[in-house]
């Protein structure tokens, strides 16, 4: 039987977490702002797939082993930090390239980023999923919060999936708003100077998250 009070309580917490600007918001906005809606939705789906995976693993007790093992947590933390710093550095490096009008037009026609990444759902999904799954702080959040909303006598897996599914739904709805806003401003956001500014801002944010993750306890 579903405990709706627990469901609503969890929805409030993850809803506030979803609305808080962070790494996911920066990635989605940057991708959508470049006019690559397929890849942007791929990023969203990848992030939400990671969220659901964390929920399932927590329900099964697997993430508790991750947070309990200092070595395992450290490995995932450094892998995630390296990936984020690499991704942020790649965005910043792309802004150093001369972007003439011909190159901008070629990018629009071929549907490719300046970095060479195609505008595909699968490419975005890989980026979103890796960003989420290589962040052990997401796992730590689920380990500390999710069990508190699983009532005694209920199936841990079923309730865990339901709670994580709620997080996924809220995250997807908010992401659709972000993509919609970016689409409305697409003409301004596609200008060469604006695109370089987006890459600088997003690259700095992503890299900072990676450094923070590496230096975290």
Q: In words, what does this structure look like?
A:
The chain is mostly helical and 217 residues long. It has one domain (24-215). It has eleven helices and no strands. It has helices at residues 4-19, 23-33, 37-59, 62-68, 70-94, 101-110, 121-133, 136-145, 156-184, 186-189, 192-215. It starts with a helix and ends with a helix.
Helical fraction = over 70%
Q: How much is the radius of gyration in Å?
A: 19 Å
Give the DSSP E fraction (strand runs of 2 or more residues): under 5%
- State the end-to-end distance: 38 Å
Looking at the structure, what is the overall shape? Answer: globular
Number of strands: 0
- Pairing-aware structural class of the strands and helices? mainly alpha
Low-confidence blocks of residues: 98-116
| Count of spatially separate domains | 1
Mean pLDDT: 81
Q: Could you spell the SSE succession in H and E letters?
A: HHHHHHHHHHH
Total helices: the number is 11
Sheet having the most strands = none
Annotation keywords:
globular; 217 residues; mainly alpha
Describe the secondary structure blueprint for this structure.
Blueprint: H1 4-19, H2 23-33, H3 37-59, H4 62-68, H5 70-94, H6 101-110, H7 121-133, H8 136-145, H9 156-184, H10 186-189, H11 192-215
Helix pairs in contact: 1-9, 2-3, 2-9, 2-11, 3-7, 3-8, 3-9, 4-8, 5-11
């Amino acid at each position: 039987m579903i405990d709706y009070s627990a469901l609503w309580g969890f929805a409030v917490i993850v809803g506030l977490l979803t609305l808080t600007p962070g790494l996911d918001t920066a990635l989605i906005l940057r991708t959508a702002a470049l006019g690559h809606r397929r890849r942007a939705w791929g990023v969203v789906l990848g992030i939400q797939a990671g969220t659901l995976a964390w929920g399932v693993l927590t329900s099964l007790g697997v993430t508790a082993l991750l947070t309990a093992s200092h070595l395992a947590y450290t490995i995932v933390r450094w892998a995630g930090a390296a990936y984020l710093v690499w991704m942020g550095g790649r965005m910043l490096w792309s802004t150093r390239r001369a972007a003439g009008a011909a190159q901008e037009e070629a990018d629009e026609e071929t549907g490719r980023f300046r970095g060479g990444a195609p505008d595909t759902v699968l490419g975005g999904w890989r980026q979103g999923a890796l960003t989420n799954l290589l962040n052990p702080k997401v796992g730590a959040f689920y380990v500390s919060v999710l069990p508190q909303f699983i009532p005694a006598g209920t199936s841990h897996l079923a309730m865990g999936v339901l709670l994580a599914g709620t997080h996924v739904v809220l995250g997807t709805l908010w992401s659709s708003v972000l993509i919609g806003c970016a689409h409305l401003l697409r003409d301004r956001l596609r200008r060469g100077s604006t695109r370089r500014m987006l890459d600088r801002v997003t690259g700095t944010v992503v890299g900072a998250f990676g450094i923070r993750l590496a230096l975290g306890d």
